[in-house]
Amino acid sequence: MPLKIVLLGAPGTGAQALADALAAHLAATPSSTPVTLVVLADFSALDQTASMALLMGLDLPCPPDQQPAQQAADAQLRAALNAAGVAYRVVYGTGPARLASALRALGAVLGVPESDAVQANESRAVRLRAYGCEKCSDPVCEHRLFTALTRPPAPGCA
Question: Given this model, what pLDDT does residue 157 score?
Answer without folding.
Answer: 46
